Every structure is written in structure tokens, then in C-alpha cells.
Amino acid sequence: MKILVLNGPNLNMLGTREPHLYGDRNYESLCNMINGFASQKGIDVEIYQSNHEGCLVDKIQQAYGVIDGIVINPAAYTHTSVALLDALKAVSIPTVEVHISDVSKREDFRQVSYVRNYCEKTIAGHGFDGYIEAMDYLLQKYGG
Ligand code: CA2
Fold first, then answer.
1. 95 bridge partner residues
2. Quick count: other Cβ atoms within 10 Å of Cβ 74?
3. What distance in angstroms lies between residue 11's CA and the mean position of ligand 1's atoms?
4. Chain-centroid distance, C-alpha 66
């Protein structure tokens, strides 16, 4: 199976600041963890990060017909982007929303998630492990 892992703005800066929220490991370490799990389970994974909303929309559209499942941490676009929600609806690929921090315990403006309206599941506050849980959910869904 093919899984696309999408990460939104500033996640490439992991490990530089706010370790109480996002931990002290960097983005490369997150990618290594995702790739390690994928190779262990025989999953074909692509990881993509962008600071630009339209680039993330483009990547979702390109997944149409070729990707079996999406794991998405839209970062700040979680709370603002109808465009990402519409793109996910357009391609109709099973999707899991992931947040490293527990957004439910943070500011009011983080309580809204547009993509959640489409996603099958949301995992928040489990740190980097949330990505593994999301991939595992998609794997189970396809009988893996
Ligand atoms: O908890 C998450 O995964 C978030 O999606 C992270 C976003 C935030 O806007 C969401 O509300 C929750 C922020 C990612 C920014 O990452 C940073 C990395 C290094 C230093 C500061 C922020």
C-alpha cells in the first residue's frame, strides 16, 4: 500500500523551539521514524512538507488514483484552510489527521479543524508516535 504523509508550515523547524509542545527531536528524526515503520511493515511511503497552502493542495490532488491513504498534519492550516478540506474531499482518499501536541488543551483558535470534517480519525497529543498510529490505522483498514 502507498501512504502519503503531509506536513504543513513550520514543522520543518521541529526541535528548534517549544520542546514542551513538540519535543526535542528534529524533522529529520520524524522522517526517519516514519520511514523505519514503513519499511518494517512493507508500506510504500512518501513524506512531503510545505510552508505553502497551495503546494499542499497540489500534493493532495496528485495523490488521486495513486495513493491509498493520507496522514496529514496541516499545522496552522488545520485551523484556517477550507482549501485543504476541499482537496481531501475531491480526491476521496482515506485520511487521518495528526497533531503532535494536544490541541484540545491549547488556545481557542486551535479548537477548530477544517480537515477534521473529512478525516476518518484524529490523533493529537501523542507526539511523533501519532504518525505511526495513523499509518497503522490505515494499514489495518486495508487488512495489513
Ligand atoms: O501539534 C501539532 O502538530 C500542530 O499541528 C503544530 C502546529 C500548530 O499550529 C497546530 O496548532 C498544532 C505548529 C507547528 C509549528 O512547529 C514548530 C516547530 C518548531 C518551533 C515552533 C513551532
1. 70
2. 26
3. 6
4. 18
What is the structure's pLDDT at 115? 98
Q: Taking each helix axis from N to C terminus, what angle separates 53-62 and 82-91, rounded to the nearest 10 degrees?
A: 10
Amino acid at 143: G
* pLDDT band at 143; cut points 50, 70, 90: confident
Q: Which residues are catalytic?
A: 22, 99
Q: For residue 58, report the distance from its CA to the centre of ligand 1, in Å.
A: 21
Query: What is the C-alpha separation between 101 and 83, in angstroms, rounded?
Result: 23
Ligand 1 atom, smallest distance to 75 CA: 5
What is this structure's pTM?
Answer: 0.98
Residue nearest to atom 12 of ligand 1 (CA): 75
Which domains does the chain possess?
A: 2-142 (3.40.50.9100)
